[in-house]
Design brief:
230 residues, alpha+beta, five-stranded mixed β-sheet, 5 helices, 8 strands, rod-shaped, binds zinc ion
Length: 230
């Protein structure tokens, strides 16, 4: 085997390191390296100088991949959170709007009996019961709920929104004559046990005003009241 000079070996080291030289040359170089510190040092230097950048490049590439995928993820999650945020915001807005208008318009609270004044309860010539209702607290009334249970007791309950409105001019439903037609109410109550036995004005659990109950004799309506319902 020819002895190689350090100069030749070091010229061939890059090929040796890249493992692209012939097996013969490889063997000769390896043999030289085994005995030559100088060339081994040169090889190590070559390894360092080429390895380091390669590792750095690899690392950089991984980092940039990671960065790219993070960016992509961030972009996607940003879009997703924006959509979620928008949905949440519009839902919240919707709830607030509904709630806001609801508090002013849904008739969900009962007018307290202390604010209700029932007068002139009387019987019209056709048998209907007439009465005058006035709400004394000065708030407007928009809805009256009338419910009769299977016990035959009818509750006529004035209802209001949570935020009630004051009225200067007229109380609408809150100041007028009203009428109850027992005969009509009983047409769908074929079971005698379920026929209307009593009529209250107000809320069931708030000491309502008794307008009429079975066996009660009401005074005849005045001509003025009769005129209201002609
Ligand atoms: Zn050498």
């Amino acid at each position: 085997m020819n002895k190689l000079s350090c100069e030749i070996v070091q010229d061939l080291l890059p090929l040796y390191y890249d493992e692209v030289c012939s097996p013969d040359a490889r063997q000769s170089i390896a043999a030289h390296l085994a005995t030559c510190e100088k060339c081994t040092a040169a090889l190590n230097k070559l390894k360092q100088s080429s390895n380091l950048p390669f590792e750095v490049i690899t690392k950089n590439k991984q980092e940039s991949n990671a960065l790219a995928s993070f960016k992509e993820h961030w972009k996607r999650s940003k879009v997703a959170s924006f959509a979620k945020g928008l949905l949440l915001a519009s839902t919240v807005c919707g709830v607030i709007l509904i709630g806001y208008f609801g508090l002013f318009s849904w008739n969900i609270t009962k007018v307290p009996s202390s604010a209700i004044e029932i007068t002139e309860v009387s019987q019209l010539r056709d048998g209907r019961i007439a009465y005058h209702v006035k709400l004394t607290d000065g708030y407007r009334l928009n809805k009256i709920s009338a419910k009769a249970g299977d016990d035959g007791i009818l509750y006529i309950t004035p209802m209001r929104p949570v935020f009630k409105s004051k009225t200067d001019e007229e109380l609408r439903l809150g100041n007028r004559y009203d009428v109850i037609n027992l005969e009509q109410l009983n047409t769908n109550r074929t079971d005698p046990a379920k026929q209307i036995k009593a009529v209250f004005y107000g809320s069931k659990d708030d000491n309502p005003f008794l307008i009429w109950k079975q066996g009660m004799k009401l005074p005849p309506a005045t001509d003025l009241v009769e005129a209201q319902f002609d």
